């Protein structure tokens, strides 16, 4: 049962990371998809309570920032600027101001944005060396429960797999039907405040706003209908390696458009592409990535499906993995593994030289065939694979083979 908490009172796992960045960098950039709670995270942070704030969603403020960026960034000793991607010219002015001050003022600028500034073609200034970046994803299940944390990935990586079953049995997170979690998603308003009917209307408005306004800040997309059809096609292919040629053929759209639009969906933090794991890092780029939506409920809405399937449980898991990974330093990679003969593991965490393999099954009673590829992965990488985890929808956690543990998904996420 999710507690009835106002969206601005839900503790976020990112709060500690934000505090650390404010003590290191003159510029802190909080990015993530629209409506993930970026502005709320910044607004309720104790160290920013007295810092004046401007939003570039306001037409008048945006016009002033565009007219004279250098003057705008000198309005106050410290500034919070929301939706900074709407006036990319501000970043050059911020860089000049930070360099003029000699980077002495930590937390001088706090910027929020609904786009990945490092991927935006219109942004020529990355603020390298001057800015710390924090990606805020949708609420994790444990944040929605009031725990203020992501899944237990770091704990599992730090403990021998033989200890995992007992460790997970002691976890305080309650059981929950994964279908309810997928329908609810993690965007604060639909996740915490709305029922199913209201949630559908909210997502309709969310997609419309994205297509008609947010997308225009990133690129000129004339065929919005085709773009939306591409979004639906990707939502129907969750967890599958992306075949742009196939999607283009099915939709009757040039492949170059599919490639460009997929990049735009990544830039706006709606879609994540997971590379394939290989020992040789350069060959990862030669394998097709798998695509997941950063919010399972949005993916379900776009697909037009009433009932979640196993792919949506995968999407719930990967959203939590991404939220956890974004807060780690150094940041781990979230990958998948697939061989030429189609042996596949859903997710691989690579942290330094340590690997952890994760398979996801929506069934309540795992069968030995469900972990056969985890066994193969452990055999393939005996020196670097710390352990392997099969997440399922049942209640029991137990070890099934050397370094391979079966556990309920809700005891981890």
Please describe the topology of this protein.
Blueprint: H1 14-22, E1 27-31, H2 38-43, E2 53-55, H3 59-67, H4 69-72, E3 79-82, H5 89-101, E4 109-113, E5 131-135, H6 141-144, H7 153-158, H8 164-169, H9 178-184, H10 188-193, H11 196-218, H12 224-235, H13 244-251, H14 255-267, E6 271-274, H15 281-284, E7 290-293, H16 296-303, H17 310-325, E8 333-338, E9 344-351, E10 354-360, H18 372-380, E11 385-392, E12 398-401, E13 404-408
Parallel strand pairs: 1-4, 1-5, 2-3, 3-4, 10-11, 11-13
Antiparallel strand pairs: 6-7, 8-9, 9-10, 12-13
What is this entry, summarized?
By secondary structure, this protein is of the alpha/beta class.
Structure overview:
- The mean pLDDT is 92.
- The strands form three sheets. The chain has a six-stranded mixed β-sheet with strand order 8-9-10-11-13-12, with helices on both faces. Strands 2-3-4-1-5 form a five-stranded parallel β-sheet. A two-stranded antiparallel sheet has the order 6-7.
- With 413 residues, it is an alpha/beta fold.
- It has helices at residues 14-22, 38-43, 59-67, 69-72, 89-101, 141-144, 153-158, 164-169, 178-184, 188-193, 196-218, 224-235, 244-251, 255-267, 281-284, 296-303, 310-325, 372-380, and strands at residues 27-31, 53-55, 79-82, 109-113, 131-135, 271-274, 290-293, 333-338, 344-351, 354-360, 385-392, 398-401, 404-408.
- The chain is globular.
């Amino acid at each position: 049962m999710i507690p009835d908490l106002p969206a601005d009172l839900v503790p976020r796992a990112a709060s500690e990371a934000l505090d650390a960045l404010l003590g290191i960098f003159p510029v802190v950039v909080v990015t993530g998809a629209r409506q993930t709670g970026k502005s709320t995270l910044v607004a309720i942070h104790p160290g920013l309570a007295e810092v004046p704030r401007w939003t570039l969603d306001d037409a008048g403020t945006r016009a002033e920032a565009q007219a004279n960026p250098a003057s705008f960034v000198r309005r106050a000793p410290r500034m919070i600027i929301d939706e900074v991607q709407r006036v990319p010219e501000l970043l050059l002015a911020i860089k000049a101001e930070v360099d003029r001050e000699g980077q002495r003022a930590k937390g001088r600028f706090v910027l929020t944005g609904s786009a990945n500034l490092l991927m935006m073609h219109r942004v020529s200034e990355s603020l390298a060396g001057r800015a710390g970046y924090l990606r805020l994803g949708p609420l994790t299940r444990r944040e929605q429960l009031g725990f203020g944390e992501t899944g237990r990935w770091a704990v599992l990586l730090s403990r021998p797999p033989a200890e995992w079953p007992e460790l997970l049995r002691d976890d305080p997170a309650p059981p929950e039907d994964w279908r309810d979690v997928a329908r609810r998603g993690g965007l604060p308003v639909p996740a915490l405040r709305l029922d199913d009917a209201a949630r559908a209307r909210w997502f309709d408005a969310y997609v419309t706003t994205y297509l008609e306004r947010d997308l225009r800040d990133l690129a000129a997309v004339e065929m919005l209908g085709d773009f939306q059809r591409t979004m639906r096609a990707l939502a129907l292919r969750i967890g599958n390696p992306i075949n742009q040629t196939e999607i283009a053929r099915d939709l009757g759209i040039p492949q170059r458009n599919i490639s460009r639009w997929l990049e735009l969906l990544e830039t706006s933090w709606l879609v994540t592409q997971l590379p394939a794991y290989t020992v040789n890092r350069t060959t990862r780029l030669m394998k097709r990535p798998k695509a997941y939506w950063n919010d399972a409920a949005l993916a379900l809405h776009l697909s037009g499906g009433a009932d979640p399937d196993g792919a949506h449980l995968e999407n719930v898991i990967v959203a939590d993995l991404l939220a956890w990974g974004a807060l780690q330093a150094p940041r781990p990679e979230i990958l998948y593994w697939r061989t030429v003969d189609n042996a596949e593991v859903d997710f691989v965490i690579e942290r330094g030289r340590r690997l952890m393999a994760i398979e996801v099954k929506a069934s309540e009673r795992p069968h030995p065939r469900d972990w056969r590829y985890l066994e193969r992965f452990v055999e393939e990488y005996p020196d670097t694979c710390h352990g392997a985890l099969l997440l399922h929808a049942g209640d029991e956690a137990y070890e099934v083979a050397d370094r391979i543990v079966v556990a309920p998904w809700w005891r981890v996420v």
